[in-house]
Amino acid sequence: MSAQKKRNFKIEAFKHRVELDPKYAERTWKVLEHAIHEIYNHNASGLSFEELYRNAYNMVLHKYGEKLYSGLVTTMSGHLKEIAKSIEDSQGGLFLEELDRKWGDHNKALQMIRDILMYMDRTFVPINHKTPVHELGLNLWRDNIIRSGKIQTRLLDTLLDLIHRERTGEVINRSLMRNITKMLMDLGSSVYQEDFEKPFLEVSASFYSGESQQLIECCDCGEYLRKAERRLTEETERVSHYLDVKSEVKITSVVEGEMIANHMQRLVHMENSGLVNMLVEDRYEDLSRMYNLFRRVPDGLSTVRDVMTSHLRETGKQLVGDPERLKDPVDFVQHLLDEKDKYDKIINKAFNNDKSFQNALNSSFEYFINLNNRSPEFISLYVDDKLRKGLKGVSEEDVEVVLDKVMMLFRYLQEKDVFEKYYKQHLAKRLLSGKTASDDAERSMIVKLKTECGYQFTSKLEGMFTDMKTSVDTMQGFYTSQYCETGDGPTLAVQVLTTGSWPTQPSAPCNLPAEILGICERFRTFYLGTHTGRRLTWQTNMGTADIKATFGKGQKHELNVSTYQMCILMLFNSADQLTYREIEQAIEIPAPDLKRCLQSLACVKGKNVLRKEPMSKDIAEDDAFYFNDKFTSKFIKVKIGTVAAQKESEPEKQETRQRVEEDRKPQIEAAIVRIMKSRRVLDHNTIVTEVTSQLQSRFLPNPVVIKKRIESLIEREFLERDKNDRKLYRYLA
Amino acid sequence: MHKSGRGHRDKVQQFMAITGSSEKAAIQALKASDWHLEGAFDVFYSQPHIRTVTDSRHLEELYNRYKDPYVDMILVDGITLLCNDLQVDPQDIVMLVISWHMKAATMCEFSRQEFIGGLQFLGIDTTEKFRDKLSYMRSELKDEQKFREIYNFAFGWAKEKGQKSLALDTAIGMWQLLFAERHWPLVDHWCQFLQVRHNKAISRDTWSQLLEFAKTVDLQLSNYDEEGAWPYLIDEFVEYLTENGIVQSHQN
């Protein structure tokens, strides 16, 4: 090849307009129309994509886009109408299959057509605001097939019927269902919703309404809930298999509404199987199921919670009012703790540790524990019992657990100051009789009380411990100083108690036997020698003594008795027989105490170191007492003293309550003064509110008492009423 | 300080024309009220009309007539004599009013200061003048404000020296006396209630609040406010009334 001269190669646009004459346009269209027919008739393989594309392109280019588009619409609609007929004609079960198949065909056809008409789709369509081909295809399908009179109802009915059958246990063709619903979704979410979902939900609602009515008549609560749960799982599964994912929430809420919400009250209150039974029988699985189902519906959990609360309050109220239960305080408190444990477990295992249920539990306990005004006393007695002997052999952690549980009950008490009073009394008795099982446990309890209530609460209690320790040192000092003088006399162990820290005891008279007066005096001298300016008073009602006694046949026993009892027994060293009156005269202790001591010495089997005539249980003035020569016991050491803490008798209880009320008055006044000092001028109701909130960690003040205290403060000129507004009080500096 | 500006002079003239007082009195009154005419009238008229100058010799004579022979006070005998001279019963409530004017510390005795000072203030230096003044003093009980003052004064006056509270019997006696002047239908129930339920002395606060109660709360207790910060005794009284059916309860 010879090197030709290079010619500049330019591509130029057509210089002349290429006119497409109308006939040519018609011909081109015919080609395309034919192609569409072939495509629908599954004869697409014989077509040339390129040629068809070009034809379409030319039409659009030469401004025949409109013809092309409207032709497409007509042709496609025509085909679809035929297809509709064939679907309508299909028999029974084949209806859906036919629909599905034709839908598949249509999609494939649509794809091809769209490809062919791509140029029109991209240019003519947007410019002229026409529906794009693909969408057009879907709309035409929707209008000609899905919304065609006969098909529309039949489609819905078929679908719903299949679902119903599946619900009643039949197996259906799930993939076919999926295809159909997917088709509806593809046609637009409003098609899916209007043509299927809405009626589906309505039908489901009436289905479940019927089913729930049936079940509730014949099932017990647990069974019903199991079935409801199963239905819910089923529906969720159904959605995942062949419905739109957005339907899940809607259908489950239908089931929840029909099966749960509409029957909540009936389920919860069902006799022999409802919530209360489940609680009583600790049916964790059923409870858990109820919780999980009910939480799905509005007010579900509050219904459960309310029933639980009223049940708790009711049982609690019965518990604290049952005289049988109240006979043994320790047992009573143990029951409370057990009840608390039970419900903690239920809330943990079945109610998902739900805080609102915890709160309901707490408020219920608070409610009924305070119904019985002896609760503070009983809780203190429980602790007393545990700290005496109940915790022997229990590991340190377990001790903590028990005490923590008791603290939970303590927190519920409204009258914490009453508890404090009793705790002090019981602690005093424990310390003085040496009956604490574990010093560590005692300390631990004090720490817990301090953490809960502050230093004020426990400072006196700690003072008691200090006194005990100091007394040990004092005794050591005493004996070192007396080493030459002890000899054969009685051994003395003294606890010196600081008056403010220990529970106040009225001092009662008592004549101590001569045998011990000596050493007692020596101790007093010793103590006052090192602590001038103090005053000592023997608390004869709180002491104990160990006496060695020899009986008729020479049996020797060591008797552990109270100080009072010791005084009585020592009298029998110089007399074999004494009447009640003689004893009373000699010892001079208060009559009720004397009677009690004599009863414990003469009327209790196994401890009757004295004999009484007559042998009645009650002590009369003329009764005679004899030293019981014939006393026997298998123990060498016999314990007769009764210094253990017991629940108070009625008069004692009244007295304690009165003392508590008296103690509250200055606390209320102090609170009023504190508040008025900082606020200067305040109205009556606000004072009452403020005082109540300041004192509620100790007790609930009575508004009438607060009013009286205010008046007392007015009288003592701490406060005055405002001259213009009688409801206002003013602080006087 | 002769700050009489022109405006002040006019006011003085006006004042004198209206009240008929002297210039000196006019200026005094106007100064006392910061040169406001209205206030000045109040000042002027609140003083006893006849600001008569009392003869101090007469007052001495009068005091000595009633004074106890051993103590520089007028005691029971002197008061009896005084009542005789005035032709008034010693239990008459006007004695209370007199004591109030005298600012007497305790009932049944007057100190020299109290007696003479009081009479001076009232413009009395003879027994006749004293007698003449009695009806005026009785009328003072009809004035709301004065009645309240006299009522509150009565507490301190009737109680024992050195005590904070008023003995119940005395209190009841005083209430009977006072509420005869200013009618309160519930007074008998109140006294009965106290004797039955309370039986202790009465505090000052309760005393003064009772008058408010009598004045503001109606006889059916329909406007009694439980939250009204009434003294607790009054709350208990209301309970007592409803319990005994004297009043219908207003439970809402």
From TrEMBL, chain A:
GO process terms (BP): ubiquitin-dependent protein catabolic process
PROSITE patterns named among the record's database cross-references: CULLIN_2
Gene3D superfamilies in the cross-refs: Cullin Repeats, Cullin, Chain C, Domain 2, Winged helix-like DNA-binding domain superfamily/Winged helix DNA-binding domain
Keyword Lipid metabolism recorded: no
Keywords: Isopeptide bond, Ubl conjugation, Ubl conjugation pathway
Phylogenetic placement of the source organism: Eukaryota, Viridiplantae, Streptophyta, Embryophyta, Tracheophyta
Domain Cullin family profile intervals: 374-602
Stated name of the protein: Cullin family profile domain-containing protein
GO molecular function: ubiquitin protein ligase binding
Family: Belongs to the cullin family.
SMART domains: CULLIN, Cullin_Nedd8
From TrEMBL, chain B:
Molecular function via GO: cullin family protein binding; ubiquitin conjugating enzyme binding; ubiquitin-like protein binding
GO cellular component, as recorded: ubiquitin ligase complex
Gene Ontology BP annotations: protein neddylation
Keyword hit for Signal: no
Function: Neddylation of cullins play an essential role in the regulation of SCF-type complexes activity.
Identification of the protein by name: Defective in cullin neddylation protein
InterPro entries: DCN-prot (IPR014764), DCN1-like_PONY (IPR042460), PONY_dom (IPR005176), UBA-like_sf (IPR009060)
Keywords: Ubl conjugation pathway
Domain DCUN1: 54-242
